[in-house]
Design brief:
Strand content: 5-15%
Number of helices: 7
CATH superfamily of one domain: Winged helix-like DNA-binding domain superfamily/Winged helix DNA-binding domain
Radius of gyration: 19 Å
Strand order of the largest sheet: 1-2
Number of strands: 2
Helix content: 55-70%
CATH class of one domain: Mainly Alpha
Distance between the termini: 38 Å
């Protein structure tokens, strides 16, 4: 197992804070690259999978593009463009609201649900990598990540 220093070929860090920040960034990039390769087998991007997962969680109710955007893991994703691509693939449908023509209701299709069912089991095996960490450690790890994310957001908003 490579340490952060070994992986990026750096022996000294300004502080443990800097080392932790770099470690989080490297780990996030590693997970993203792995997920991208995994979802490519299903002709999806991680962001498209995220949209489908949101729609399945809301199924049978529909979602608006704004609701999808608010729930996305990557807030910088272009939800409208993702919806366009998934509609082209037949994985979701758009229905213009009769009461408000500006609002579009988005629903996952049967094909969208089926592809998620195909993904579920192999994706769980990717998650099993975390079995080397105890449940108690994962609870604490999630708390730490929540703290970091919220503090980072707070600092960014006040800057």
């Amino acid at each position: 197992m490579l340490s952060l220093g070994e992986e990026i070929k750096q022996t000294k860090f300004k502080s443990e804070h800097q080392k932790a920040m770099l470690n989080i960034m490297l780990t996030a990039n590693t997970l993203y690259a792995s997920n991208s390769r995994f979802f490519k087998k299903f002709d999806l991007s991680p962001e498209q999978y995220n949209v489908l997962r949101i729609l399945r969680g809301n199924h049978p109710k529909s979602c608006s593009v704004l609701n999808i955007q608010e729930r996305m893991l990557d807030k910088m994703s272009n939800a409208s463009r993702l919806v366009d691509k998934l509609e082209t693939k037949g994985l979701l449908t758009r229905i213009q609201c009769k009461e408000d023509r500006r609002q579009v209701d988005i629903n996952i299709t049967k094909a969208g649900l089926e592809i998620l069912n195909q993904i579920d089991v192999p994706f769980e095996s990717m998650e099993s990598v975390l079995e080397c960490v105890s449940d108690n450690e994962l609870v604490r790890f999630n708390e730490i990540l929540d703290t970091i994310r919220n503090m980072y957001r707070s600092a960014a908003e006040s800057a």
